[in-house]
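Quick one, probably user error.
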């Protein structure tokens, strides 16, 4: 029954289509009940209603042309300015908003590539990033013709500095560290990486997609956060996602540069198009104005006190998850700094645990190297912490009593993937998965 869907001659009634949407929507993961641990960042029903109101006010406007919509220009400039001051950039740092972390990262890589070509004539640029770095860097490398060299980790999942040092070559244009990285919520040694970059006269990007709108507030709450932002000399660019821990609407991130001169290399302009003079800050052409306005509105409505309140609660929730996870016999991977963590097991197959937790209605993020389960804690996860920890303890007991489960479900697939003699087979599998995804 494939590929039978085609545009119907006459349209359906809106009420009819809405009804179908509602029914399909009900089958999705219940993030509102705290059943997912990433993907959705919901602060409160009140805030979400506010975001919808702002977003729909700017539903049709286009962020591409600020000439037509001066209010959007103001919002974007102010969001960038607020982010810059929050992240140690003061008046000097410059940036733009983008559609998300991936686009911010792509832009930072492109800007450094063009900077290195213009100032040093480097034609075959390379960058060095930790093994744990977000795949958006692999994507940026692939799209923009920059070679990405991965550096290994220490036992705490932080990048190994000696390895980074040994990988620097005359073609290296950029070092990357995460604050914190997504898989385990662990911080790379940003200050040491930045010092290396400065010594070699190259760029240093801090991926604070997770931490950009979290770490500044944790610091104020007394958490021991190592220096990670523009206050560290040598940091030349940063990415920080508003649509994650900024609690804005989706489609909002900022990319920041040490100064305007470096940002210049991000822009794209064209003077010869019959459609007129064209200037665009980033990858996208048309830009949804709703997400820009919603980001501005969020920063204004929360203020520093709002974020402090959110993170005071989230740290408490994090503590309770940690306690329950450790009590059930699991180990936290590395030393997470904020409200993102992963746990592994010294005695049971974690992928079996993942299968059992999914049977109990949790959406589980499985990870490999080390085999672990990822948690990004958001306010929605607070009311269900006891339920989660109880389910985890019971699932662990069940897994202990049923060793045969390792040969079933997703656990069997992860077991197979780990044993494949040719790792490129996994890519073939993923390509196949993507083709399947678009079957109707
Ligand atoms: C989410 C994330 C990204 C990518 O951001 P998107 O908004 O999903 O494109 C990059 N880096 C880190 C550390 C992230 O957590």
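Nope, works fine. Designed sequence:
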């Amino acid at each position: 029954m494939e590929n039978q869907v085609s545009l119907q001659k006459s349209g359906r009634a809106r009420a009819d289509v809405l009804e179908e949407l509602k029914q399909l929507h009900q089958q999705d993961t219940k993030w509102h009940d705290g059943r997912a641990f990433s993907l959705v960042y919901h602060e409160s029903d009140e805030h979400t209603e506010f975001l919808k109101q702002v977003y729909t006010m700017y539903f049709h406007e286009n962020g591409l042309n600020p000439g037509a919509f001066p209010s959007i220009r103001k919002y974007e400039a102010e969001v960038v300015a607020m982010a810059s001051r929050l992240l140690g950039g003061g008046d000097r740092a410059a940036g733009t908003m983008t559609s998300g972390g991936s686009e911010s990262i792509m832009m930072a890589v492109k800007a450094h590539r063009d900077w290195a070509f213009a100032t040093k004539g480097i034609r075959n640029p390379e960058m060095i990033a930790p093994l744990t770095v977000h795949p958006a860097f692999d994507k940026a490398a692939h799209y923009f013709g920059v070679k990405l060299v991965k550096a290994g980790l220490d036992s705490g999942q932080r990048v190994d500095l000696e390895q980074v040092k040994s990988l620097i070559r005359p073609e290296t244009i950029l070092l990357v560290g995460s604050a914190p990285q997504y898989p385990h919520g662990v911080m790379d040694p940003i200050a040491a990486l930045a010092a290396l970059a400065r010594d070699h006269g190259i760029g240093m990007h801090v991926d604070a997609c997770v931490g950009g709108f979290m770490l500044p507030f944790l610091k104020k709450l007394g958490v021991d956060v190592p220096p990670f932002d523009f206050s560290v000399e040598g940091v030349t660019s940063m990415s920080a996602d508003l649509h994650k821990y900024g609690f804005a609407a989706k489609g909002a991130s900022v990319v920041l540069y040490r100064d305007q001169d470096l940002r210049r290399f991000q822009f794209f302009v064209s003077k010869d198009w019959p459609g007129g003079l064209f200037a665009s800050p980033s990858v996208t052409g048309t830009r949804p104005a709703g997400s820009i306005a919603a980001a501005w509105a969020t920063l204004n409505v929360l203020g520093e006190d709002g974020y402090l309140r959110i993170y005071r609660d989230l740290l408490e929730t994090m503590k309770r998850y940690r306690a329950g996870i450790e009590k059930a016999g699991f180990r936290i991977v590395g030393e997470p700094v904020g409200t993102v963590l992963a746990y592994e097991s010294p005695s049971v197959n974690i992928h079996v645990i993942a299968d059992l937790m999914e049977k109990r209605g949790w959406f589980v993020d499985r990870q490999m190297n080390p085999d672990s389960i990822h948690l990004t804690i958001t306010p929605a996860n607070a009311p269900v912490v006891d339920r989660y920890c109880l389910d985890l303890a019971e699932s662990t007991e069940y897994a202990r009593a049923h060793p045969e489960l390792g040969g079933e479900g997703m656990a069997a697939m992860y077991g197979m993937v780990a044993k494949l003699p040719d790792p490129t087979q996994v890519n073939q599998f993923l390509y196949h998965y993507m083709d399947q995804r678009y079957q109707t």
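The domain at 55-299 is CATH 3.40.640.10 (Aspartate Aminotransferase; domain 2).
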